């Protein structure tokens, strides 16, 4: 619902409302009203805050998901009811992604649906932050990516019929804000925001800005806190983890060394390392491989390559060539046993020739990556690549099909069949009914029968079925034969000893 007074306060600096001050504010002459109004109706100036239902939808990366979890935590602590039923909600909080066209189109479609349903709407994420003049987001309140700790102000003003846009930069929300995790036992910790690159196809830099790292102490404090709260998986996330610390006089290597020092030896806690681009880790490969070899860290690394052609990488302004990417991958394969490497590839970049695409095919054949995120090029408004002539859509579609078929032709899990694996069982539910998703040390996806008592445990399982993207396992049955033998064996030894003593 886009109505009321436009309060553009994006350059002002208000204090975050005291989350414990709800009663005082409720007693200051505010009165309860229905918030579901038609556009032609007058919106009352004041309402009782913290009594409405809020629906939250998130697009994009884990960093975006973490932002949504923080915002819902702040709103819930103040009294707002977070609901998954959009029809029942008074206000929709829509957290967007600007990486690809389809994500933004879905976001815009959801705005229009909310408008049709007469909902109050607050926008968040990289779309409004990166393009504040986008015609599709005018007339709506906005919470900027560096202002998520002020979501309460925006929601309260929006429910009063005002339009508030908080898009200021140069600050990072605290890591210890209230938070509602989408998975109770999995915590996403952003170690930094933004990046140092200027890729010609990417609009995320417009929204997230230059790299801004959290202090090591703040990250360590957050890790200790969430472990005490019962978290069993910690995902360290960033737009580019390798660039961590370059703005505050430290490094990713130093952060990782401190993290392994505080991981508990008596608890089942696993850490998953986030995405990193090649340029900023070339001098930190030993530190990263040592970290990935730690028993409480998944042997998994996400390194986007985007193209197998050094020429295309240069035109993308990726700041590395294909030989340097291969140096990273080769080092990890040589130094981290059974590592899983995930990469991203864009097909159909405007300057990509058939020969360039063939180099990408050869790269995939060489490494047979277990996970590849394949995207067709989408021109993002305001980026240098958007000004380039597009390749014929039929050619792009064919390249995408060819690469996808090659990727799916590999069967990396075949050798696991009938093997016994040690799994870390998290609280991640599968789309397959009655199954949980567990992972081995290499972060392979393994489906195990749902059993609440198994969550948070480290278990040995037998792999009974495999396909391209996951495996299915069964829990091992207790070996009662050995159990009974362990009981009987001491008795037998005692009898033998007694018999020998009797005769000698």
UniProtKB/TrEMBL annotation:
What EC designation does it have? 2.8.4.5
What reaction gets catalysed by this protein? N(6)-L-threonylcarbamoyladenosine(37) in tRNA + (sulfur carrier)-SH + AH2 + 2 S-adenosyl-L-methionine = 2-methylsulfanyl-N(6)-L-threonylcarbamoyladenosine(37) in tRNA + (sulfur carrier)-H + 5'-deoxyadenosine + L-methionine + A + S-adenosyl-L-homocysteine + 2 H(+)
Using the record's annotation, list all stretches that form the TRAM domain: 414-477
- Which cofactor is essential here? [4Fe-4S] cluster
The Radical SAM core domain is annotated at 181-413
Q: What does this protein do?
A: Catalyzes the methylthiolation of N6-threonylcarbamoyladenosine (t(6)A), leading to the formation of 2-methylthio-N6-threonylcarbamoyladenosine (ms(2)t(6)A) at position 37 in tRNAs that read codons beginning with adenine.
What name does the UniProt record give this protein? Answer: tRNA (N(6)-L-threonylcarbamoyladenosine(37)-C(2))-methylthiotransferase
Q: Which organism is it from?
A: seawater metagenome
């Amino acid at each position: 619902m886009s109505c009321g007074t436009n309060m553009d306060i994006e350059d002002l600096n208000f204090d975050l409302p005291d989350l414990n001050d709800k009663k005082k504010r409720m007693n200051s002459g505010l009165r309860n009203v229905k918030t579901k109004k038609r556009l032609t109706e007058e919106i009352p100036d004041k309402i009782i805050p913290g009594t409405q239902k809020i629906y939250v939808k998130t697009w994009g990366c884990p960093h975006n998901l973490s932002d949504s979890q923080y915002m819902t935590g702040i709103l819930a602590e103040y009294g707002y009811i977070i609901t998954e039923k959009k029809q029942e909600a008074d206000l929709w909080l829509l957290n967007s992604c600007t990486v690809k066209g389809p994500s933004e189109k879905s976001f815009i479609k959801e705005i229009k649906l909310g408008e049709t349903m007469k909902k109050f709407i607050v926008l968040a994420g990289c779309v409004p932050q990166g393009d504040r003049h986008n015609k599709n987001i005018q007339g709506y309140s906005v919470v900027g990516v560096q202002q998520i700790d002020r979501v309460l102000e925006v929601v309260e003003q929006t429910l009063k019929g005002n339009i508030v846009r908080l898009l200021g930069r140069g600050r990072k929300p605290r890591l210890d804000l209230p938070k509602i995790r989408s998975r109770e036992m999995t915590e996403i910790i952003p170690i930094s925001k933004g990046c140092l690159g200027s890729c010609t196809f990417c609009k995320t830099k417009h929204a997230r800005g230059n790299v801004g790292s959290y202090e090591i102490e703040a990250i360590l404090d957050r890790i200790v806190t969430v472990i005490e709260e019962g978290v069993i998986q910690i995902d360290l996330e960033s737009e580019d983890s390798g660039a961590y610390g370059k703005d505050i006089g430290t490094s990713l290597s130093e952060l990782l060394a401190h993290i392994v020092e505080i991981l508990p030896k008596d608890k089942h806690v696993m850490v998953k390392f986030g995405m990193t681009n090649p340029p900023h880790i070339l001098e930190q490969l030993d530190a990263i491989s040592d970290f990935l070899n730690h028993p409480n860290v998944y042997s998994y690394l996400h390194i986007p390559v985007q193209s197998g052609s050094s020429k295309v990488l240069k035109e993308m302004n990726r700041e590395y060539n294909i030989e340097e990417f291969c140096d990273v991958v080769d080092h990890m394969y040589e130094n981290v046993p059974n590592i899983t490497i995930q990469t991203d590839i864009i097909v159909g970049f405007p300057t990509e020739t058939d020969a360039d695409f063939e180099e990408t095919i050869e790269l995939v054949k060489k490494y047979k990556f277990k996970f590849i995120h394949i995207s067709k090029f989408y021109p993002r408004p305001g980026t240098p690549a958007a000004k380039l002539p597009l390749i014929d859509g039929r050619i792009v579609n064919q390249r995408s099909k060819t690469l996808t078929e090659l990727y799916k032709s590999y069967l990396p899990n075949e050798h696991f069949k009938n093997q016994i694996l040690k799994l870390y069982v998290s609280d991640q539910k599968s789309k397959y009914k009655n199954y949980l998703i567990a992972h081995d040390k290499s972060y392979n996806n393994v489906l195990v029968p749902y059993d609440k008592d198994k969550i948070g445990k480290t278990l040995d399982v037998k792999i009974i079925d495999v396909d391209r993207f996951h495996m299915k396992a069964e829990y091992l049955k207790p070996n009662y034969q050995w159990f009974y033998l362990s009981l009987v064996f001491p008795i037998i030894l005692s009898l033998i000893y007694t018999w020998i003593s009797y005769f000698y």
